[in-house]
Amino acid sequence: MMPTQFKSPTVSQLSSVTRAVLVAIAMFLAASAVSAAPLRWGADAEGGAPYIFKDPKDPNRNIGFEVDLAEALARAIGEGIEFKQYEYKSLFLGLDRGDIDFAMNGLELTPDRADRFRLSVPYYFYALQLVARRGDGHIVSLDECKKANCTVGTLEETAAQRLLTRRQIKTKLYDGQVEPYQDCALQRIDAVLLDLPIAIYYAAQNPKLAFVGEPFDRGQYVIAFRKDREELAARFDAALGQLARDGDLRRIYEKWKMWNDDQVLGAAPSPAVSAAMPPSLSSSPAAAPAPTSVASSGDVTTDSAQQWTWRRTLPLLLDGAVVTVGLSVASMTLAVILGLLVAVARLYGPGPVRLIALGYVEFFRGIPVLLLLYFLYYGLPAIAETYHLGTALRLSPVQAAVLGFGLNYAAFEAEIYRAGVLSVPSGQWEAAEALGMSRSLAFRRIILPQAIRTVLPPMTNDFVALFKDTSLVSIIAVVELSKQYQILSKSSMRYLELGLLTAAIYLCMSMPLAALARRLEQRWSRGA
Amino acid sequence: MPIIELVDVSIRLGGRVVLDKVCLTVEKGETLALVGPSGGGKSTLLRCINGLVRFDAGSLRADNYELPPVSVQVPTSTLRAVREKFSLIFQDFQLFPHLTVIENVTEAPVFVRGVSKGEAGKTGMRLLERVGMADRASAFPRELSGGQKQRVAIARALAMDPVALLCDEITSALDPELKGEVLDVLSVLRRDGLTLVLVTHEIGFARRAADRVAVLSEGRIVETGGAREVLESPREERTRRFLDRVMV
Known about the structure:
The structure holds 2 protein chains of 2 kinds.
Chain A: H1 9-32, E1 39-43, E2 53-55, E3 58-63, H2 65-77, E4 81-85, H3 91-97, E5 102-103, H4 111-116, E6 118-119, E7 124-133, H5 142-147, E8 152-155, H6 159-166, E9 171-174, H7 178-185, E10 191-195, H8 196-203, E11 209-221, E12 224-225, H9 230-245, H10 248-255, H11 291-296, H12 310-348, H13 351-366, H14 369-386, H15 397-422, H16 426-434, H17 439-469, H18 481-492, H19 495-524
Parallel strand pairs in A: 1-4, 1-5, 8-9, 8-10
Antiparallel strand pairs in A: 2-3, 6-12, 7-10, 7-11
Helix pairs in contact in A: 1-12, 2-9, 2-10, 12-13, 12-15, 12-17, 12-18, 12-19, 13-15, 14-15, 15-17, 16-17, 17-19, 18-19
Chain B: E1 4-13, E2 16-26, E3 31-35, H1 42-49, E4 57-62, E5 65-67, H2 76-85, E6 86-89, H3 101-113, H4 117-130, H5 146-158, E7 164-168, H6 176-191, E8 195-199, H7 203-209, E9 212-217, E10 220-226, H8 227-232, H9 237-247
Helix pairs in contact in B: 3-4, 3-5, 4-5, 5-6
């Protein structure tokens, strides 16, 4: 018999797989690092009506009054503006990092923001609107809410939240503006306090909800820039003035049912602080649009949710799935390489190296990956600034995500590999050395291939877990499958259908992986 | 000139004396059996010869290589060369379970010596024929019986062209009916002129397989001589006691 199949199946095949994966990572990272010329506008399109949100009729498109405004501004200043999806809470961090040139997303003028950022003249005067369940008579005002110990829902990091905190009213905080109204309708909370445009869009159409009292506590929406972008901010100020004078702003706000007599736009620059506005203004009766009239007047603000189609939604979900796969494969590759190094250091390194490796495992295993992502993405650039390192540590969202997950999972992989290597009988070392093999050759050719067989099942576990964990990256402005689901379902209200579809896509990705692992195990079980 | 020569080789582990001034020579082409009670230092002595275990005092020469005590640094290249020339075979085989029979045999020639895979494969098949295992070349170790595994282990050792085989209780883990096939292989190798050092506590095996016997007890060589004369009419009291115990 000819010795045809004595080529070891593991090492040669693994190395070609590793090569392919490395190439994929390189392309993935390169693609994420491309920068574009147009001005980058940061806003959160997730459930962001009527400011900016996915058009339910065509989820490839963002619509909203701020989208219209951005288009008008681009025309007025003669420069392109490109939208960048950014978590609402992180918009100011994004400005600091320089990921975006300006933030325009219903940001209220507040003293501390005016302190830290260059704010534009106001582009809209908002007020707060209290909403409760229809027919729930006992809530007639915020004061009643406090007396009755009601829970009021609102959005994090908003003027409404600050007001509720100041008045010491029991508050429930939400990430998006869809959920508080849903919870109110479902009787999970008693009332919702949010900006009037939001109430008009989400609550006015809901027959279960009703506006309580008049809008109050007026304030201004402004565009935020970094302080060193004065020149750009001044051009925006001028453009806003011009749009107000030409009536463009009014046309936009009328289209979105947001126009009212509060809008004294294009006047003098904004007063420094919204709280400094005369209190008399806040009882102006003109602002409250009758909910019924809004609900009856179709077009942009109503029932667009019915126009939703699979054909347009599926490709967007698949885009998200591609990001999920790319992130998972890149992160796992990093975790495997790093984990192996750490495991070898723990097993065979000299004393201090062993300690460092142990410290690595304990540290990265012990901290939440969410914290790590936040630190890598937002913390490192701040450190770089403190020590004048320029943009050296300014990772792209994808780089930060791959590094974060890679560092975190490497700690788990290292422990798995260590156990796997230790599970190979010491006689195998002796046998390899008795044949004249060096320690490193024995490790690579004899010990490691056997250890890999042992660790394959727990590694598969980790990889599947990583697939799902990558949904955490939405906090650093990466839109993957889960985030895409949240965005699309909020604009279309198809939570169930899209949820099932998204789950199916996740399963389509993880199940072939598990099947591959099973096949490898079966093939290897002839040996070992 | 003897092919292996130990002079006053000693090993202490903690307070315990494992080997105590052992002097021993093995001639080229001869088969020496190391017998004695378990814990007497036989396996340790065997591992000293190919440098897997380093000793504390004394001197050791294996073929052309001088192995000094552990306090003296020896280049790892020397240790590796000694291990290739004096190949160790284990009681529990220690075949590489993730490799096929032929891969087990070609692994060291290809990755230690840099022999081409085709060349190593051809040599490997010849060696497998020699131990009667050529028809199982593409099997994995776990598909083999103990006797077959030990024959593959012998072929694996032979692939590195050793001048001597150091066999550590290589039939002890085998059922009686399987010991025969391994012994047959050894007698063929012996006829071909290979030097063999056999560690065993099986007297029958020693008598059948060896030219000469050395009795090792409590770290000391108690008695050496022709296999028949030592095992049938021992001169030393300690040898007699050991033989009485194992013969029962």
